[in-house]
Design goal:
The protein is α/β, with parallel strands linked by helices. The chain has a single domain, classed as YqgF/RNase H-like domain (Nucleotidyltransferase, domain 5). It is built from 5 helices and 8 strands. The chain has a 6-stranded mixed beta sheet, with helices on both faces. The chain has a two-stranded antiparallel sheet with strand order 1-2.
């Protein structure tokens, strides 16, 4: 097998372990989930998961594993995922707000649930706008977007991270401590 000038063999960046990747778009009502093939070439939609906002505490005071986090953790295990990319919604200026803090908190709980699998935060500015535009251009009516918009945004988040992996030969984004 030949190695391309970008340092990858067959599309997989050298130095990165083989394994599916997951992309997560965290919203207030729903979470979009996308997955990739084991070589991290193409992102595809997986499902939309209802978001749990009321996070109970475990007996030790730590946040309990909620059904939304448990569902993603099950997908990580089922797919033998190597990394989970969670979208980090920054303002267009790059500053962080309440939605950013919410995504960071969710990613932290997810990282604890899927450890030792890495969870990484990646910039997701404009993903929902792009997802709406793509769905409209594909002929989907705006009324029917709600059922798939979160998955479409998760696909964009994941595909962007996969593109960074291939270009840079390393994981995209900021690692979340478990």
């Amino acid at each position: 097998m030949s190695v391309s000038p970008q340092g990858s063999a067959g599309g997989l960046p050298v130095g990165l372990p083989r394994g599916a990747r997951l992309g997560v778009d965290v919203g207030k009502a729903r979470i979009g989930l996308a997955g990739s093939d084991p070589d991290g070439l193409v992102a595809t939609p997986v499902e939309t998961i209802p978001r749990v906002l009321d996070v109970p505490r475990a007996s030790d005071g730590s946040p309990a594993v909620t059904p939304d986090v448990a569902r993603i953790a099950a997908e990580v295990e089922e797919r033998f995922a190597a990394v989970v990319y969670v979208g980090l919604p920054r303002h267009l200026s790059g500053s962080e707000g309440a939605a950013t803090a919410d995504a960071r908190e969710f990613a932290s709980r997810l990282a604890a649930a899927v450890a030792p699998v890495e969870v990484r935060l990646v910039d997701e500015r404009m993903t929902t706008v792009t997802a709406h535009a793509q769905l409209r251009s594909a002929g989907r009516r705006t009324r029917t977007h709600r059922t798939v918009i979160d998955q479409a945004a998760a696909v964009i988040i994941l595909q962007s991270a996969l593109d960074v992996e291939r270009a840079a030969g390393m994981r995209a984004g900021e690692r979340v401590a478990a």
